[in-house]
Design a protein that fits this description.
Number of helices: 13
Order of helices and strands: HHHEHEHEHEHHEHEHEHEHH
CATH topology of the largest domain: TIM Barrel
Strand order of the largest sheet: 1-2-3-4-5-6-7-8
Distance between the termini: 44 Å
Largest sheet: 8 strands, parallel, barrel
Strand content: 5-15%
Length: about 300
């Protein structure tokens, strides 16, 4: 068993086994260990060497310790990927939002109700209204207009952030970032569940995925996969190897990949197991957005 080994040696074995896979990230300061377990301490150190931020290194270390206890053996090559080792909810989940399709397909993130209508009519299966305004009346009008804009189409409409307006307008679902989740008033999640809305949550690593799972969302978004200039990201681009690890861990959820993904990268991204790719600039910055949508939909259908 691992208890007989030196922590430094175990950490070196883990880092060596996974260094190529998770290459490209600078080593991070290792957080102070909180458990007196050599596997936990070694995995914590190795995850930091491999470039995982402190909260994710802590999450990985606890999962590695749980994996070793569950299997009865330490394996430096066995990166933890079982939901039970991360403390994720067993199936069926006790806390869960209504289900959405396992494969949400092309997912367009759009700035206005007009854009939502255009892309829904172009055949995009999943659309999100990301309307930025501090004026509640303007928000309510735009959300209502977006709900109206998808009527008569097959598009599923998620509203970014404005959860109460989404409930009032009868939207299909709401998408929240981690900061939005932090800012929710008490009872908001219960209100969303009671209204039957689907919920999507953004995540940027293991700790946030663990937190998202506790809510039991309808889908989980993972990113940013590649560099993006659209918004300031809380973490470095995650890259394909991390995306594949995240997608494997969250295999019982619909998964959306987001962040800097262009058509040339679609095949590699879908190969990780995600069922949806979110795009912004690929549509709103295209010379002919409808044609761009048709091309991306055709690409998805033949991959």
């Amino acid at each position: 068993m691992a208890e007989a080994h030196d922590t430094d040696a175990l950490a070196a074995r883990i880092a060596q086994a996974h260094g190529t896979r998770f290459a490209g990230f600078p080593a991070q300061p290792a957080p102070a260990p909180t458990l007196d377990d050599p596997v936990y301490r070694a995995a914590l150190r190795a995850a930091s060497v491999l470039g995982f931020i402190a909260t994710d290194a802590e999450t990985i270390a606890r999962a590695w310790s749980a994996q070793t206890a569950r299997t009865g053996a330490f394996d430096a090559a066995a990166w933890p990927g079982e939901p039970v080792d991360f403390g994720l909810q067993p199936l069926p989940r006790a806390h869960a939002f209504p289900a959405c399709p396992q494969r949400l397909g092309l997912y367009a993130v759009l700035p206005s109700a007009d854009w939502v209508g255009r892309m829904a009519r172009a055949g995009v299966p999943t659309v999100q209204l990301r309307f930025k305004s501090a004026d509640p009346a303007a928000v309510a009008r735009e959300v209502r207009a977006a709900v109206q804009a998808v009527r008569g189409t097959h598009a599923l409409l998620f509203i970014n952030d404005h959860w109460q307006a989404a409930i009032d307008a009868g939207a299909y679902g709401v998408h929240l970032g981690q900061e939005d989740l932090d800012g929710l008033p008490g009872g908001a999640l219960d209100a969303l569940r009671a209204a039957g809305l689907r919920l999507g949550l953004s995540t940027h690593g293991y700790a946030e995925m663990q937190r998202a799972d506790a809510v039991g969302p309808s889908y989980i978004a993972m990113g940013a996969v590649f560099p993006t200039t659209l918004k300031k990201m809380p973490t470095a681009p995650q890259g394909m190897a991390r995306l594949a690890a995240y997608a494997g861990l969250l295999r019982h959820y619909p998964r959306v990949a987001i962040g800097g993904i262009d058509a040339a990268r679609f095949q590699d991204v879908l190969a990780t197991g995600v069922g949806s790719i979110a795009v912004v600039r690929a549509l709103v910055a295209a010379p002919d957005p409808e044609q761009a949508a048709h091309e991306l939909l055709a690409l998805l259908s033949c991959i």
